[in-house]
Amino acid sequence: MESIGILRVVRAFNLPKTERTSKIDAYISVIQNGSVIGKTKVQDDNEEPVWEQSFIVKVGRDVTGRLGGSIILQLFDENTFKDKLSFTVKVGRDATGRLGGSIILQLFDENTFKDKLVGHVNFDFSAMTPDQMKYVELPFIFEEDKFTKQGRNSRVAVSFHPGILSSAFMKNMWAAALVSSAAF
Fold it and tell me: Whole-prediction pTM value?
């Protein structure tokens, strides 16, 4: 059985320094079953970002109604550097009347630097009670030792509110409503 619920990414605490000259430009990528289902907005230069963004997720339930499955929350540092490659060609008319002038061609490559995966959290529904899911702070597992060595207690605060109806039940309910309204 499947339920639809709302996962709210509230905020993060004590995020690591990722660059020498600035703080982390943090955002969270929400992943379910290997697919990205949403991303928070980027919070520039902020080690304590507040997002307050919600995402609709599908969650399995066993025969007793207990939630199962998990969501992965990945912490990224956005990189917005641009490489610029510039060419200048001068064209004009000389004293003999030959064509001339100038053209400037600039090429920008915004994908030279990828956003950096800093850490992740596995939000396991089966490991928590419904009351615990209302608000929970989960510690990040860092991708590189240099982040772990900073000794910060980095974590993300999330809340989850499970839906009552499964998507299959809702489809059947709507189909039944359409059939019964056609009878009138």
Answer: 0.71
